[in-house]
Amino acid sequence: MSGRFAGKHVFVAGASSGINLEIAHGFAREGARITVLSRSEEKIAAAAQGLRDAGATALGIACDVRDYPGLEAAYADAVAAHGAIDVLVSGAAGNFLAPAVKLSANAFKTVVDIDLLGTFNVFRASWDHLVKPGASLIAITAGQAVHPMSFQIHACAAKAGVNMVTKCLALEWGPAGVRVNAISPGPIGDTEGMRRLADPDREKQIKGRLALRDYGAKRDIADAALFLSSPEAKYITGTILNVDGGSDLGDASANAVGE
């Protein structure tokens, strides 16, 4: 396949569905060779087949991002198939609504282990397999990293850590020519996260609080990942890129033009 990323190897963790799978498809449309990874063997096999059906060269690997030795083996297999990694996206995540007084320590730890430890594992285990200089690493974070939210103490803590992992690795790995950034999506329609965290009956109210008055699309996040990994972004590292319709700015419901 031809395209901006023809011949490049793009590895996406947490890519059995949703935003991360759309990111994989975005790079595939631009000619990249794709490795997708997720813990469900059945789901990741289907995701890889979908990429191949769309014309991509794609490999699916079943592995839990909490399993560091498993990730080491996954990288070895991916590199054997597609060569050194040019772009790496760490997007595995877990979340649910829960008041802190009803949240068990184990439930808190589960989200932190998937989101925060998983991001560190995905990035750290990749080091020996990255194109250096030139690799682009992207974490998928969330607005909870900087905005405290009720019933989200576990996700807020985990995503705050993801932001700092991103920035610390950007400092440490920049001298090797490896860039590390993060994308913070806002409300993205037709995703599992929105189905779990947002009541459909409140859709109009939620959109009315956004500066751009609508949910984003999975393609918006994929396009941001393509930009961050392109030559046009070669001087960007350690950045948390909000792709959120202005939700980070606060409540825009009273800011309609001309009112």
Automatic annotation (TrEMBL):
Question: Belongs to which family?
Answer: Belongs to the short-chain dehydrogenases/reductases (SDR) family.
The keyword NADP is annotated on this UniProt entry: yes
* Coiled coil start-end: none
Q: Which UniProt keywords apply?
A: NADP, Oxidoreductase
State the taxonomy lineage: Bacteria, Pseudomonadati, Pseudomonadota, Alphaproteobacteria, Sphingomonadales
Q: Which GO MF terms does the UniProt record name? A: 2,4-dienoyl-CoA reductase (NADPH) activity
Tell me the domain of life: Bacteria
What's the protein name? Answer: SDR family oxidoreductase
Query: What does the record list as GO biological process?
Result: fatty acid catabolic process
**Native source organism of the sequence:** Sphingomonas lycopersici
